[in-house]
Amino acid sequence: MAEADADRGAIEPVPAQTHPSPEKSRFAEWRNSLSAQLLIRFWLSLIAFFVIVALIQYKGLQSFLLQQEQINVKTEINIFADRTLDDWIAKATHPASLPDLRPGNILILFSPDGQVRGVTTQRARQKTPEVQRLLASRLFPRGSKSHAPFIWTVAKNKRFLVLFRPVRAVPAKGSAFSARPLTGYAAVLAPLTQMDVLLQHELRLYGISALIIMVLGGLAAFYVVRKPLKPLRSISDVSAKIAGGEYSLRLPFSGGSSEIEHLRLALNHMLGILADTLHTEQSAREEMARFIADASHELRTPLTSIRGFLEILLRNRETNPESLLSAHRSMLTETERLIRLTEDLLTLDRLALMSASKEKEVVSTAVTEVLNDLTPLLESLVLPRLLTVRAEPLTLPLTANELKQVLFNLVQNASQHTPPNARIEVILTRAAGEIVLSVSDNGEGIASDDLPHVFERFYRGSRSRQRSKGQGAGLGLAIVREIARVRGGRVGVTSERGQGSVFSLYLPVRTEPPHG
Q: What separation in angstroms does the CA of 172 have from each of 83, 91, 169, 408?
């Protein structure tokens, strides 16, 4: 038991992992390459082609040689007259040699019942009775039934072309031809050894030639295939670098075939789209990070103020009524600021959803309806500044709430960045096929570095436009831009230092159908 436990507790050796050698790895990599696949298919096609050609040539040459042998055998067997053959069969005697036979050919005489009556050559005449019985048992049954030439295989490499001819008795004078009795058969055997040797020689020569052609053709094909595949290797190398993070790379023109060129153009187009997508994603990520940081800052400021006032009230429980009222008012102001910030964020989110929607709602609002209700509020907003409103009676492709929010945000932005004695002017007109709503002021203006960013969320600029303390979070102009984008318009700003600024909203003119 102790030995069994010791065996179970023993650590079994882990077999070492075998790694393929570099030569095998390179061979496997080459075997899976496109050039190797094309070369292998080229060789397989050559093999199939040569095999088919070899079969056709072999069969054609074999058929031609057999036809020649058949003609020679028919010629030889027809040389002998029936009288001569009948006499040889009847007497079982024949010449020891026949000059009319070709060397190697054999003439065999059979009786009607298949007995061998004679063989032409001296060697054949000396055959034993067993050999004669073998000839009679194997050759006679087939040849006596068909007088067409056939091939008789004696051994593995020994074949004969055999032709049988019936021998009939010579008729007496005045007797009918059909009355001639059958006296036996004569068979001529022509050896096919020379034909088989010739066919094997031609087959070997063809095989060697085909092998040489395959090797030379494979080397030539390998050299020829490498050049058209060079652009693909370049595409593979550049793609590997792009996969490594070099997204700015593009596939260069390599002068390849039209298919490879189409592939290069398609890949470059895809890479361009991918780069734009990555750039947009990066910009969105950075904008989101800035948005979260700015929103956190804007939310923290009023919350910190409210917390400070609450801590003061907790420490000084016996605060006089005036100080208590002042603290309550301050907390109410900060709470309203939080509410406005939250409402502005919800507005931006709603406008973003409307911009992403494919179905656009067609809206319109007469500007006179909105200005009649909004002008008193705007005048009180800009006090003690002077507000001037000049508007043509136009219809804007906005809802009433959107138009109020645009006017309120633009006017509020102007009042926040101008001194108390400034002038603010609101102008609504139609020019160059567009409706233009502009709000101008004669304040200090905006620095050129800040102009491209004034419509961004939470952007407050540098030192060029100092806003009033505690007013705004940098979302008013961003809301104006989103409203313009949703309604198919655009925004713009022009400014000169010391001369003031002009914020403009450009909207398309809506063509209304004529009323009946």
A: 12, 19, 9, 144
- The DSSP output letter for 179 is G
Whether 328 and 310 have beta carbons less than 8 Å apart is answered as no
Query: Going edge to edge, which strands form the sheet with 150-155?
Result: 116-119, 106-110, 182-191, 158-168, 150-155
Query: Residue 261 in 3-state DSSP?
Result: helix
* AA identity, residue 124: A
Closest to 43 measured CA to CA, from 207, 216, 204, 229: 216
Nearest to 473 by CA among 289, 299, 309: 299
DSSP annotation string for 106-133: EEEEE-TTS-EEEESSHHHHT--HHHHH
Selection from 363, 368, 330 nearest residue 512 by Cα: 363
Two structure tokens written together for 216: 């030379």
Nearest to 333 by CA among 360, 309, 356, 369: 309
Report the alpha-carbon distance of residue 483 to residue 142 in Å, rounded: 106
**For residue 136, which of 153, 165, 121, 114 has the smallest C-alpha distance?**
114
CATH of domain 247-358: 1.10.287.130
Angle between helix 34-77 and 193-243 (nearest 10): 170
Residue pLDDT, tens place only, 124-137: 444 545 555 666 67
Q: How many whole angstroms separate alpha carbon 487 and alpha carbon 306? A: 39
CA atoms within 13 A on the CB side of 341: 24
Residue that the structure tokens 């502009």 belong to: 438
Q: What is the pLDDT of residues 466-501, one digit of tens each?
A: 444 445 567 888 889 989 988 889 999 999 888 899
Is residue 166 exposed (0-12), middle (13-18) or buried (19+ Cβ within 10 Å)?
A: middle
The per-residue DSSP string of 405-419 comes to HHHHHHHHHHHHTS-
Residue showing tokens 């292998």: 40
CB atoms within 10 A of CB 111: 18
Tokens at 397, concatenated: 């492709």
* pLDDT at 424 (0 to 100): 94
Give tens-digit pLDDT for 329-350.
888 888 887 887 788 778 777 8
- Helical H segments across 316-433, by residue range: 321-356, 367-382, 400-416
User: Beta-carbon neighbour count of residue 157 at 10 Å?
Assistant: 11
Residues 94 and 92: their CA atoms lie apart, in Å, by 7
Architecture of the CATH domain 360-508: 2-Layer Sandwich (3.30)
Would you state the torsion angle of the CA atoms of residues 153, 157, 160, 161, taken in this order, to the nearest 10 degrees?
90
Residue carrying structure tokens 């092998």:
211
DSSP assignment letter at 516: -
CATH number for 78-170+181-191 (one of 1.10.3720.10, 1.10.10.60, 3.30.1050.10, 3.30.450.20): it is 3.30.450.20
Q: Where are the domains of the chain?
A: 78-170+181-191, 247-358, 360-508
Q: Is the full-model pTM beyond 0.85?
A: no
Region 266-277: what's the mean pLDDT? 83
Helix (H, G, I), strand (E, B) or coil at 94: coil
